[in-house]
Design brief:
The chain is mostly helical and about 130 residues long. The chain is elongated.
């Protein structure tokens, strides 16, 4: 009787593990985390832009790093999708974020803070959401 109960418990545990694989840090998750961090640091450097003489340089360099992190996110999503056979949805999300980052760069260079700042907040929210979903 105990052997049958143990076998049933083991099968149930294996089924639950297969349905909910343990979370692990993947290249895609790390890329999203890096992207989220760089967008957050851009908000900090935007504040320094208003209060410090070196804020403009820091924000400019941060924009390049954030854009690179967005491209890394696209690369990681493609690598998780194509060779690994994962879903294509993260590729679309990463590509959409890269489009938003491109618009953010254009708006920043054009000095349009009325759209640049809210778009930055939106990007941070979307990046945090993507990180929470991974």
């Amino acid at each position: 009787m105990t052997t049958r109960a143990t076998t049933t418990e083991t099968a149930a545990t294996e089924t639950a593990t297969a349905a909910n694989p343990p979370r692990r840090f993947s290249f895609l998750r790390n890329a999203i985390a890096l992207q989220t961090l760089t967008v957050f640091l851009q908000a900090i450097s935007a504040g320094l832009l208003l209060t410090s003489p070196f804020g403009a340089t820091l924000h400019s360099v941060g924009a390049r790093v954030m854009y690179g992190a967005s491209m890394l996110h696209v690369l990681a999503a493609v690598l998780a999708w194509k060779p690994g056979g994962g879903p294509a949805r993260p590729v679309w999300h990463a590509s959409g974020f890269l489009v938003l980052a491109s618009a953010q760069v254009v708006l920043g260079v054009a000095h349009v803070p009325s759209v640049h700042l809210p778009l930055g907040v939106l990007m941070f929210g979307l990046s945090v959401l993507a990180l929470a979903r991974r």
